[in-house]
Amino acid sequence: MSPSVETALPDEVRIREVGPRDGFQNEPEVIATADKIRLIDLLSATGLKRIEVTSFVRPDVIRQLADGEEVLRGIERREGVAFAVLVPNRRGLDRALQLRDRFDDASFFLSASETHNQKNVNRSIEESLVGLEQSIPVAREAGIGCTSVIATSFGCPYEGRVPTEQVFSIAERLIAAGSDEIGFGDTTGMANPVQVGAFFEEARRRLTGVELTAHFHDTRGQGLANVLAALQEGVGSFESSFGELGGCPVPPGATGNVATEDVISMIGEMGIETGVDLPRLIEASAAAQEVLGRRLGSHVLKAGPVEWR
Ligand code: ZN
């Protein structure tokens, strides 16, 4: 590895914790609203500055997050912590806007592959883009920060390779519509570090003026390697889930966002600032483990933080 690669590492990294949405949504059981609120409050106290707290999807489609309003009303607003809500469409945005003072940012999404988008939201990519081009300006008008996440950016379980050109042209439309941030999701854990490095090298050149965020899944154990590859291209924004919760319902079995505590531990040991209190974060993951009644996948939750004696 050349020294120039090392100097590209960012000094500071921003994490958006997505476990309360991506994680809770993909649990087979519906987690009690009071437990969700307690876990989000624990996360807010760790120093994490961005948390995706729920989604305004149709309650009859995703019953795990049917309590979005109650969760937003119940969680403690803490100075310096921005709450995001996932918004699938205009109807979801209108529901979210009823509670405008309870959150800061909206996350919009679509897939870079036709088949995945069709299976996930029952629309073509073009139909999704047209919808987002209508919703994003409405959210902006309301002073809401707009993140657009492109799922299957690094590969699709149905179509295989997704041309980066396709991902970037979708990103350019989302930027033109008013997104402040573009997230790239490795939705089913297909990306490898070399691919990720080349992807972000080009992304940083082409997509300027917006924050670029990486969202990796550890489906095949490559999550942290991909985080490192993105860091080495200067990416300073990541999405991850405490405890390694989460995944994607399509296809079944595609589970596990990279664990927030594993990311925080690794980059903290590398000397990069996150502002997150790791032992507190581990406590939040342990509390989630207790609520769910099963062992979670996170490494640092099992092993504890590195202690240099
Ligand atoms: Zn995910």
Can you describe what's shown?
It is a single chain. Helix 11 packs antiparallel against helix 12 (278-292). The chain is built from 13 helices and eight strands. The protein is globular. Residues 1-6 have low confidence and may be disordered. It has an eight-stranded parallel barrel with strand order 1-2-3-4-5-6-7-8, surrounded by eight helices. It has 309 residues and is of the alpha/beta class. Zinc ion (ZN) is lined by residues 22, 185, 215, 217, 246, 257.
Considering the chains and any ligands shown, give keywords for the structure:
alpha/beta; 13 helices; disordered N terminus; binds zinc ion; 42% helix; TIM Barrel; 309 residues; eight-stranded parallel beta barrel
Brief account:
By secondary structure, the protein is α/β, with parallel strands linked by helices. It is built from 13 helices and 8 strands. Strands 1-2-3-4-5-6-7-8 form an 8-stranded parallel β-barrel, surrounded by 8 helices.
Helix content: 40-55%
Number of strands: 8
CA(first)-CA(last) distance: 29 Å
How many structural domains can be distinguished in the coordinates? 1
Assign the CATH class. Alpha Beta
Ions, cofactors and other ligands present here are: zinc ion
Number of helices: 13
The name of the CATH superfamily reads Aldolase class I
Query: What letter string, H or E per element, gives the SSE order?
Result: HEHHEHEHEHHEHEHEHEHHH
CATH topology: TIM Barrel
Overall, the morphology is globular
- Cross-sheet strand order for the largest sheet: 1-2-3-4-5-6-7-8
Q: What is the correct CATH architecture?
A: Alpha-Beta Barrel
Give the percentage of residues in beta strands. 5-15%
- Biggest sheet: strands, sense, closure? 8 strands, parallel, barrel
Give the low-pLDDT segments: 1-6
